[in-house]
Amino acid sequence: MSETVNWGILGTATIARKCVIPAIQAAPGCRVQVLGSRRPEAAHDLARKHHIDRVVGGYEAVISDPEVTAVYIPLPNHLHHEWTLKALAAGKHVLCEKPIACNAREAGEMAAAARQADKLLMEGFMYRFHPRSRLLKQMVAEGRLGALKLIRAAFCYRMEQTVLAAGTNFRLQPKKGGGALLDVGCYGVSTARWFFGQEPIAVQALATHHASGVDLQLVASLKFAEGQLAVVEAGFVSTLQQTYTLVGDRAAVELPHNAYIPWEKEAFFSLRELDQEDGRTLSTPGADEYQHMVAHFADAIRGRTPLDFAPEESVRNMWVLDALAEAVRSGKTVRLEER
Questions:
Q1: How far apart are CA 207 and CA 244, in angstroms?
Q2: What's the CATH number of domain 5-125, 3.40.50.620, 3.40.50.300, 3.40.50.720, 3.10.20.880?
Q3: Which residue of 18, 150, 284, 302 has the fewest C-beta atoms within 10 A of its own C-beta?
Q4: What does the buried/exposed string (b/e) look like for 128-167 if buried means 16 or more CB atoms within 10 Å of the residue's CB?
Q5: Whether 80 contacts 105, CB under 8 Å
Q6: What is the pTM of this model?
Q7: What would the CATH number be for the domain defined by 127-292+318-338?
Q8: What span, in angstroms and rounded, lies between the C-alpha atoms of 90 and 64?
């Protein structure tokens, strides 16, 4: 196998333009081979900016390109399932933007297709690759916080009123996998499951809704088997909330409001012991978590390392998101062991 991983990009979404394409071009042994767009005339400036040689119309030409090793899918949520299956069938490894699918059924089909094709599939939860996230995971594993009891996670931002009124953004359209739970609530659910290292056994949730029917703001509670609890907040209608807190019986960690996207600045967090009110401020060096994610996926393709988290992990995350959506609809506690 060539050491160079040639990437194909499906679409010109903001996350691709601002974060992942630059990360691929900067990652060792990686390059963007081809950029596919349904409006190729609008993609040429992006290609020139990032030194991408070829722009093609549509996405089929990307996944059928014999020189493309891996495909990155930043399309709207409802297209993740379709184009992941097509890319895997074409013999490509796939890095798919979060949430991996619109529901657990779709995610399970994607994971099965990856196994059948003997190709790698990974969901783009970039926050797990940041040095601060890695350090906190290590601290929890080493018992630095004592027994972890409670996690609070929030990812909320404010859409402009004109955007909400128009309702044309895919995040506001039910048929396109819209809603705050899927868009940003997936981070909080992932955070709780990752740090606790287990699956919740029951969930509850309340939400407010857009005229289209998607959830605009949501608060969820998750209960785990050993009595641990998590609270997850997600929304499109409030001041920025982008943080999580890990509470143990000996110490607690609190992050500022850059928990999931700290960019490349020095990344801070506070550590409070027992009854301390202020605690200590600690930090990790700045890093491009997207570049770390891309480099990890490329190394997994080369056979140098196993995937940090397999698609089956993403299926389990979607099971919880499905349960929370059901809890909103029913107004009842949903028990995952019964599903």
A1: 20
A2: 3.40.50.720
A3: 18
A4: bbbbbbebbeebbeeebbeebbebbbbbbbebeeeebeee
A5: no
A6: 0.96
A7: 3.30.360.10
A8: 6
